[in-house]
Amino acid sequence: MSIGARGSTIRSRTTCSPAEPMDRKEAVTTLTTGRETGRAGGFTLLELILVMLIVAVVMAMVAPSLGLFVSARPVTDAAVRVVALADYARTQAIAQGRAYRLNIDEAQGTVWITAQEEDGFQRIQTEFGRDFRFPEGTRAQWLTPPAIVADTAVPGLLMPWQAAPAGTENGPSVTAVIFFPDGRCQSCRLRLTDHRGNVVDVECAGPAERFRVISPGEGD
């Protein structure tokens, strides 16, 4: 007689975990050198002092030039205005077929434009006909007075608009530059000097040349 025993079977639970990837890279720590992290956005006191010293030196070098530019600005603006008035007189003389004059009173420090009429030269009835004054303390001096231009067709013959010599029609201190209908004008050179000693010249180098602002010594 045999006795059969029931066998007991115990199932073992198997747990599978994913394998670590073999190609996994290890973390790399990079060591940087230089400034500390806490000082990344700032400057040291020594650096600030150095920057301020450089700025002070640069300003000391530039300041005289800036001062000269600012002080010379009014007399330079006056010279530019004379050139603008001269350009206007030239343009109108050509367009209207009559002579124009740029009048400068050295004693009063004024400049204005007149045009040829039947009874002589009269102020034009526009903004350019009024008196333009030089800055206070500015002195006007003719280095080269306006040259008399004779008629090219008949040598030695003066045109009607040249009958009155410069400085006699409007007073002894008034000198006029004539702009002719054919585009010519009288060559001349005017010097403007302000009370600080800043000097600017206005020149017309020849009958066919335009007026321009130049520095002293230029064009000599």
Q: Mind explaining what this structure looks like?
A:
- The protein is an alpha+beta fold.
- The protein has a single domain, classed as minor pseudopilin epsh domain (minor pseudopilin epsh fold).
- 24% of the residues lie in helices and 21% in strands.
- The chain contains one helix and nine strands.
- It has one helix spanning 45-96, and strands at 100-105, 110-117, 120-123, 132-133, 139-144, 174-179, 188-193, 199-204, 212-214.
- Strands 1, 2, 3, 4 and 6 form a five-stranded antiparallel β-sheet that branches. Strands 5-7-8-9 form a four-stranded antiparallel β-sheet, covered by helices on one side.
- It is elongated, with a radius of gyration of 44 Å.
- The chain starts with 44 loop residues before the first helix and ends in a 6-residue tail after the last strand.
Low-confidence stretches: 1-5, 65-71, 154-158, 160-168
Strand content: 15-25%
Number of helices: 1
* Whole-number tally of structural domains: 1
Query: How many strands?
Result: 9
Fraction of residues in H or I helices: 10-25%
List keywords for this structure.
220 residues, minor pseudopilin epsh fold
Short description:
With 220 residues, the protein is of the alpha+beta class.
Task: List the SSEs and their pairings.
Blueprint: H1 45-96, E1 100-105, E2 110-117, E3 120-123, E4 132-133, E5 139-144, E6 174-179, E7 188-193, E8 199-204, E9 212-214
Antiparallel strand pairs: 1-2, 1-6, 2-3, 2-4, 5-7, 7-8, 8-9
